[in-house]
Every structure is written in structure tokens, then in C-alpha cells.
Design brief:
alpha+beta
């Protein structure tokens, strides 16, 4: 096979070269995959999943009946044929094609009974890999195995801890380092290339051996997409071109805090007390606008997506009054309907619900002490109904400017869907369909640049539909795998794959088995949230057991101060939102994105905020200072104005002054100086 060239005659970075007994996949002359008859690196097989789901938590094993190495190879007309000498009737074809932003190795199997594919690629032992969707525990993926399957992340996410073990015993709910709401089979290399598996099937990236990139896919038909760029920022742009851009965040979403309260009729009195503190507030978020269902987990919502007048009397008047003050009202929705709600009956009557496999009965999912039906988004009429009837009429037309678009990870693997698709593959793509329903609803009202929603679930392609990610349900603590620090890792990993905007529940969410918010945690999360595109608080699953923003004058005063810092940064954030619309670059960036130094490859507890700020929040318990890595250039401590040179420095970190540094030559130097003047103590 000749060296591949573009239509303009330029040499392309990825080529396939035939050898006497196999072939090589090369990038700029360096081998990424070498397949030989005597040493085949591609195999196929037949397997069946051994899978259990309990409330969005999964146990997944594979029963492999057959696995055959493809030890024979031939090429004709640019297509490579692979087969096993003992099974010449089963052929896998490979073809390298050139697309707009990438090359693609297209793999197709002639026998549909074969549903497993394994590939061993190779890499330099010094290469670092990142990505994998929204990873919580590890930014750098080397040395570990990462399955790609959207699910609840779990509580604790550390098999060595008592909390995770307790939650595992109660419905598989403990999680592990790789469990995430938003997986994506895409990874970025420090060698300035990226790989994406274009499939919704369950897949695994195995980086446990140095020099080897192992791929497992529960489908024998897949595109292996290959991206190349001269720099890491250019590579992120190419990935964003591929998966889609988010619209810029509305001004109101970035220029003040969004207060999360769910206290029914008492919410507005509490809100006014918080507003009286001097906090910069642009949104009130009441997820309980639909009513409450009390469960053993905590205060849950009633999943019938419309105004609950008993819990929020005169809500339309309150929304109008807030709007006159420049404050938006936000709510909550998810893609399921409680079986005891009116909208469930409406969906049922129109045949809009997913069904059981062996009957025409609507499938009911156990969400923990109540059941809900699944609106079948593979049915265009059902998707349009949800977008218009629920989000359009009950939310946007009612006066909501934003909402949490929750869940998306729970699609059962034994459900029957309208389009006949395999639920094992529809499961991963479900969050993307759910995001599109929300985006379509906003577009139908002409509000794409004004209203917004935020999601925790995702998969490949969610970037084009979801305008804002949030990090999901962290524990209200400093724990290594499920606490405050994980939201930084989540922002940095997802940002490399073209998700420009990210934020978290200020204060965390999950409070179980004695884990409750401390004042220290809440103070540290306030500082972190001020340096994210969106600053939004959450009362958590058990509000009465946990400290809130208005629990003490000290907490409220600190919050008010940092919300004003967040407001002052809005022009800087707006500039990088505008940049993201053009380049796809995230606002929160790993250090190595602009400073390609292997010493920065593992840093996941500090980040670049845009290109001109370094933010290093305190995310470990009991610290009043922390070490901060400063790269090349002239940097200035935001609060003191003291200059710092390249190196690692120990920086004092009192509440209200998280370690933050700005470029001395920044276009926004005057803005940063004004913050120092106004807020330094």
C-alpha cells in the first residue's frame, strides 16, 4: 500500500505500509501498530456480557466463548483483509480513510456473530496519555485500565475505604477510580496526537504496560479515528472541531453566583437574607420547584416536570420579581417520569415510553423507593414531545432560564427501544440524546444565547449539545477519590476533549454514613468555585444535616466576598468564552497544555484559568498553605502583587485568598490589579 497523500498532494501524518507478512500503521514514520502473521496484534471473538444494574450502578463482566488471532493478511485496492488460518470464512477488513479533521482506520467484520475486538497499539514508553471523558481520580491515564461505560460514579470510589465497601454492599454503589457519569473512548498523547474509538459499545483502554496501548471493544465493527496537530492546543481544537462546540455561556451565568436552595415557600426569605450579605447573585436555583419525595437517601424530587404550586405558591410572581432585579430562576429536570405523576400517563397514552423486551409493557426503573418510566428518545415523536411539552411549555414558557438536566446514565441493557437498537450500545449514547432534547428545546424558543442547562452525564458527541458540564455528586469531604479535589481533575480531563465549560456543586452533594460538610470544606469550596466559569451552590442530598451558605455569618461573609471576586472576573471569563467559541479550548486547562514539560504531566490539583491565570485551590484537609508550580514567564501573586519566577513555591492560603497567580504582561493586568485593591486584606 503506498504512502497516503491528501488531495493537495501533501504527505499525511498517518499511513499504512504493507509488509511481506503484515502491515504497519505509521505516524510521521513512527510505528503505532505493527501486525505480523507471527505476532498478530488484532483479534476478534464472541462474548456475552454478565451484567447487573442497581440504580445506575453496574457490575460488568465478560464471558468470552471464542477468541481468534488474525494471523493471515492480504491487501488489494487499498483494503487489507485479515483472518485466522483455521477460520478463513471470517474476515476483518481494514481501510485507512482521510476525513476533514482526522484519519480513520475502518474495521469491519464479515460475521455478525463476532462481537469482540482487541487491538494492541504501541507507543513510546515516555508518552503520557490524558482524556477518557470526565475522569475523577486520575488526569494522567498511564498505568491503569479504563472501561468506558456511563454510570453512577459511586460513593467513595475507593475500594480500600469503609465508605466504599459499605456502599458496594448496598446496591453496588461504591464505585471505583474509573467509574464516571461521562466516559469517552478518546485519549490525547503528549506526542501531539489523539485516538478516538467511534463506537457506542462498551470499550476499554488498557495502559497497564509501558509501551502498549491495549484496546478492547464489545463490537467487531469500529472506526479508529486518528488526529494529529503541531501542538497540544491545536490538537484540542481539532477534537472540538470533531465533536462540536458549545455556545458561549450567557452573561448572567458567569457574572455572579447562582444560589441553590430547596426550601419551598421559605426559599425566598432565605434568598433575601443571602442577597442582603452583599453577595453578587445572578441566579436562584430551586431544584424542588417540582415538589419533594422523601426517601431514606434523603430529600429527593417528585419527577413530574412542572410547577408544584403547593410547595411554591405564587412562583410566577416571584420569577417576574427576580427578573426585574436581573436574577434568573433555574429548575431541574431529568429524562425519566415517575409512574405516579401526570406526565407519565401522558407519555404512556402516546406510546412514548421504552418497553420491556418481551411485552408491550412500559419498562419501570427502580430509582430507590420509587419507579420511573423511560421516555424513548430513539422515537423522534417522543423526543420532540419532551422538548416541547415539558421543557418548552412547562419550563421555558413558564419563565425558567436554566436547569440541571440530570441523569442520562440509567438506560437498562434489557430495554426495548423504538428504533430497534441494541440497548448495550444505546446505553452509552443515551446522554447525548438527552442533551440534544434539551438543546433543541432551547433552540425552539430562540434562547440558545440566553438560557442554559448543565449536565453530568455524557459520551462522545455530547460536546455539540451540552453547553455546560458539572462534576456530578461529590462527597462533602476531602477524600482522595470522591471529594473536592476530583472536580479539578474532572474539568481538566473533559476539557481536553472539547468541553469548554465546567463547574461543580459548591459544597459537594453526597452526605451519607456520617459524612457531613465541615466549615473548612465549605470555605475551601467557596474559594475553588469563584475561579470556575459558573459559581453555583447546592444544599446537598441532606440539607438539614449539613452546613449551608447561610449557616453562619462567617461562611456567608466569605461567600459574599468570593462571589464579588467571581463577578469582577467576568470580563476575563467572557474573553475566554469567546475564544472557546472559535478554538474549542477549555477555560480550565492543565499546565502542560501551554507549557509542554513532562514535569507538569501529572499535575491535577492546580490549573491554568485561561492562559493568564494559575489557580491552585486548597483541596486537602488541614492545610493553611500549599505548594504551587509556576511555569516560565513573569507571574504575580493575585492578592499581594508579589512577583514569582519559575519553580515550586510554598504559598500561604488563608480562606478568601486561594493561591492565584496572573501573568505580569497580561492584557487583563489592570483588571487583576483592581481585584487586588478591592479584595486583598
Amino acid at each position: 500500500m503506498p504512502v497516503s497523500k491528501s488531495r493537495e498532494g501533501h504527505k499525511l501524518p498517518f499511513t499504512v505500509i504493507m509488509q511481506s507478512d503484515g502491515f504497519d500503521l505509521l505516524r510521521d514514520g513512527n510505528c503505532m501498530l505493527s501486525h505480523r502473521a507471527g505476532a498478530p496484534v488484532i483479534s476478534i471473538g464472541v462474548g456475552s456480557p454478565d451484567l447487573e444494574m442497581v440504580r445506575g450502578n453496574f457490575r460488568i463482566d465478560d464471558i468470552v466463548q471464542t477468541r481468534v488471532m488474525l494471523d493471515c493478511c492480504a491487501e488489494a485496492d487499498g483494503i487489507i483483509r485479515l483472518w485466522n488460518a483455521a477460520r478463513p470464512d471470517v474476515v476483518v477488513t481494514l481501510k485507512l480513510t482521510q476525513r476533514a479533521q482526522q484519519s480513520a482506520l475502518e474495521l469491519r467484520c464479515s460475521d455478525p456473530t463476532f462481537n469482540r475486538l482487541w487491538i494492541d497499539m504501541q507507543c513510546a514508553t515516555s508518552e503520557a496519555f490524558w482524556g477518557g471523558g470526565e475522569q475523577m481520580s486520575y488526569l494522567r491515564l498511564n498505568g491503569r485500565r479504563f472501561p468506558f461505560w456511563t454510570s453512577e460514579p459511586g460513593v467513595g470510589r475507593d475500594k480500600s475505604t469503609a465508605l466504599t465497601q459499605t456502599m458496594d454492599a448496598d446496591g453496588l454503589a461504591g464505585g471505583d477510580y474509573w467509574t464516571t457519569n461521562y466516559p469517552q473512548p478518546s485519549w490525547v498523547s503528549s506526542a501531539r496526537y489523539a485516538v478516538h474509538l467511534e463506537t457506542a459499545a462498551y470499550s476499554v483502554l488498557d495502559l497497564t504496560e509501558a509501551g502498549r496501548v491495549g484496546i478492547e471493544c464489545w463490537s467487531a465493527n469500529m472506526d479508529l479515528e486518528l488526529f494529529d496537530a503541531p501542538s497540544l492546543p491545536d490538537l484540542v481544537t481539532k477534537l472540538s472541531d470533531r465533536f462540536g462546540r458549545q455556545p458561549p455561556l450567557p452573561d448572567w451565568a458567569i457574572s455572579g453566583a447562582i444560589i441553590g436552595l430547596k426550601d419551598g415557600v421559605d426559599t425566598f426569605d432565605r434568598f433575601e437574607s443571602i442577597a442582603a450579605s452583599g453577595a453578587a447573585i445572578t441566579g436562584l436555583w430551586c431544584e424542588d420547584w417540582v415538589g419533594i419525595r422523601q426517601t431514606s437517601f434523603g430529600k429527593r424530587l417528585f419527577w413530574d416536570w412542572k410547577w408544584n404550586a403547593a410547595r411554591y405558591p405564587d412562583l410566577p410572581a416571584h420569577i417576574a420579581s427576580l427578573a426585574q432585579r436581573g436574577i434568573r430562576f433555574l429548575g431541574y429536570v431529568n429524562p425519566y417520569l415517575a409512574v405516579d405523576g401526570a406526565l407519565y400517563q401522558e407519555a404512556l397514552a402516546n406510546n412514548y415510553l421504552a418497553l420491556q423486551q418481551d411485552s408491550d409493557t412500559a419498562y419501570a426503573v427502580d430509582f430507590g423507593e420509587f419507579d420511573a418510566g423511560i421516555v424513548d428518545f430513539t422515537n423522534p415523536d417522543a423526543a420532540n414531545w419532551f422538548a416541547d411539552r415539558i421543557i418548552g411549555q412547562e419550563m421555558l414558557d413558564f419563565g425558567l432560564s436554566g436547569w440541571m438536566a440530570d441523569f442520562g446514565e440509567y438506560l437498562p441493557t434489557d430495554v426495548r427501544l423504538f428504533d430497534g437498537s441494541d440497548p448495550m450500545e444505546a446505553h452509552n449514547s443515551w446522554p447525548v440524546l438527552w442533551a440534544k432534547v434539551n438543546a433543541d428545546a432551547i433552540a425552539s424558543r430562540g434562547k440558545t444565547s440566553d438560557a442554559t442547562f448543565f449536565m453530568r452525564a455524557g459520551f462522545s458527541g455530547v460536546q455539540a449539545q451540552c453547553p455546560l458540564l458539572w462534576a456530578g455528586d461529590q462527597c462533602v469531604d476531602f477524600s482522595r477519590h470522591d471529594g473536592i479535589n476530583t472536580v479539578i481533575t474532572a474539568a481538566l480531563s473533559s476539557g481536553l476533549l472539547g468541553n469548554a465549560y465546567h463547574h461543580s456543586d459548591l459544597g459537594g452533594y453526597t452526605s451519607l454514613h456520617g459524612v457531613v460538610r465541615t466549615a473548612e470544606l465549605l470555605h475551601r469550596w467557596i474559594d475553588l468555585a469563584a475561579f470556575a466559569p459558573v459559581m453555583r451552590s447546592h444544599e446537598g442530598n441532606r440539607p438539614a444535616d449539613n452546613l449551608q451558605l447561610d449557616s453562619s455569618p462567617e461562611i456567608l461573609s466569605h461567600f459574599a466576598r468570593m462571589s464579588q471576586v467571581h463577578k469582577q472576573l467576568a470580563p476575563y471569563v467572557r474573553a475566554y468564552c469567546d475564544e472557546a467559541a472559535v478554538t474549542g479550548l477549555p477555560l480550565q486547562r492543565p499546565m502542560f497544555l501551554h507549557y509542554d514539560d513532562c514535569a507538569y504531566y501529572d499535575i491535577q490539583d492546580q490549573y491554568l484559568y485561561g492562559a493568564d491565570m494559575i489557580v491552585a485551590p486548597v483541596v486537602e484537609q488541614g492545610q493553611d498553605s500549599r505548594s504551587v508550580v509556576i511555569p516560565d514567564g513573569a507571574w504575580v501573586h493575585l492578592w499581594s502583587g508579589q512577583p514569582y519566577a519559575k519553580g515550586t513555591h510554598n504559598i500561604a492560603a488563608p480562606n478568601g485568598q486561594p493561591p492565584v497567580f496572573t501573568r505580569a504582561d497580561s492584557t487583563y493586568a489592570d483588571l487583576f490589579a483592581s481585584i487586588r485593591t478591592a479584595f486583598a486584606e
